[in-house]
């Protein structure tokens, strides 16, 4: 049974987005620092208009509430056909499998609709929930990158997790839709 669907972020979502990020701050830190005001949200909307970015809201079918965000960043075409995956969930909905289904739907879209070949997720080593999410979807650990990304103003170590199109079994295999 489908619990979530994907949709594009819109300007009208600003208040819900900001409320969700503020309410989820304790869960997000130090892993991710999403915008916590409307100006930051509008900057995010502008950023995902770039052809190298794609943003998705994961929304609950039962009431259309935003339960998380998934971004495909630095989409490279040509011989690479690859993107980096970033994501975060709303604390109120944690532990319900909604982000697993939402991220699976984005992976499915990336491979089947966007025709990408490879997705990479970079996860801080201590973020066990995020590691469980990507490994549960079939991403494999490829390596370790010291001080790889600046998160919250600090250079942080990351594990590199990736999946190829030919390794992906499809959203139905992962979430049983």
UniProtKB/TrEMBL annotation:
PROSITE patterns, per database record: GNAT (PS51186)
Annotated organism of origin: Pelagicoccus enzymogenes
Coiled coil spans: none
Lineage: Bacteria, Pseudomonadati, Verrucomicrobiota, Opitutia, Puniceicoccales
Record-stated family: Belongs to the acetyltransferase family. RimJ subfamily.
The protein, known as: GNAT family N-acetyltransferase
Pfam families according to UniProt: Acetyltransf_3 (PF13302)
Domain N-acetyltransferase: 15-166
InterPro entries tied to this protein: Acyl_CoA_acyltransferase, GNAT_dom, N-acetyltransferase
SUPFAM superfamilies: Acyl-CoA N-acyltransferases (Nat) (SSF55729)
Listed GO CC annotations: cytoplasm
Gene Ontology molecular function terms on file: protein-N-terminal-alanine acetyltransferase activity
Keywords: Acyltransferase, Transferase
Keyword S-adenosyl-L-methionine attributed: no
PANTHER family: [RIBOSOMAL PROTEIN US5]-ALANINE N-ACETYLTRANSFERASE (PTHR43792:SF8), GNAT FAMILY, PUTATIVE (AFU_ORTHOLOGUE AFUA_3G00765)-RELATED-RELATED (PTHR43792)
